[in-house]
């Protein structure tokens, strides 16, 4: 189903305006009017797409979590291939400002970690007969999910995707290799 290009642009503008306003104000102090002003849309247009600023935040969290889940699903299947992790990092760069902003004000970090943990746990169960892991799968999944998310968020803020991805791949290879 193809959406109207005007609708896509309007939603993009509202979301970009929201992120722009969040650079200067806390979420609690932001009003729908602030978002509309930054987005160059009217209040009725905003309310046509969102119930309120909480709905906007929830939808943006959901969208970023889904994108991350899709990218991560590809990565997990071949955990130790260096170029796949670098591709994951580079694929997140266009949304870096959105991701790093949402992480500061919402539960998106917990959602991303939960996604990572679930996929890693499935992966480690699948490969447990091929590799010898000296610690429980839950521990390894939680440890790697936390470490990987920290690395991803740090690289989105500061760059160095290639160096960080090589370091993280080395960590995985030493842990499960």
UniProtKB/TrEMBL annotation:
Gene3D superfamilies on file: Tetracycline Repressor, domain 2
Domain of life assignment: Bacteria
Record has ATP-binding as a keyword: no
Pfam short name (any one): TetR_N
DNA-binding region, residue intervals: 31-50
InterPro entries: Homeodomain-like_sf, HTH-type_Tx_Regulator, HTH_TetR
Residues in HTH tetR-type domain copies: 8-68
Keyword DNA-binding in annotation: yes
Entry GO MF terms: DNA binding
Keywords: DNA-binding
Name the UniProt record assigns to this protein: HTH tetR-type domain-containing protein
Organism this protein belongs to: Companilactobacillus bobalius
Classification lineage: Bacteria, Bacillati, Bacillota, Bacilli, Lactobacillales
């Amino acid at each position: 189903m193809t959406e109207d290009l005007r609708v896509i642009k309007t939603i993009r503008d509202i979301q970009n305006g929201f992120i722009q306003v969040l650079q200067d104000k806390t979420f609690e102090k932001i009003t729908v009017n602030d978002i509309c002003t930054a987005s160059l849309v009217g209040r009725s247009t905003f309310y046509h797409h969102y119930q309120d600023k909480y709905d906007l935040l929830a939808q943006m969290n959901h969208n970023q979590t889904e994108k991350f889940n899709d990218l991560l699903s590809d990565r997990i299947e071949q955990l130790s291939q260096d170029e796949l992790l670098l591709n994951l990092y580079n694929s997140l760069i266009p949304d870096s400002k959105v991701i790093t902003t949402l992480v500061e004000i919402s539960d998106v970090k917990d959602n991303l970690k939960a996604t990572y943990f679930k996929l890693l746990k499935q992966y480690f169960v699948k490969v447990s007969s091929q590799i010898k892991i000296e610690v429980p799968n839950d521990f390894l999944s939680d440890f790697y999910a936390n470490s990987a998310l920290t690395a991803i968020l740090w690289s989105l803020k500061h760059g160095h995707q290639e160096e960080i991805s090589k370091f993280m791949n080395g960590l995985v290879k030493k842990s499960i290799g």
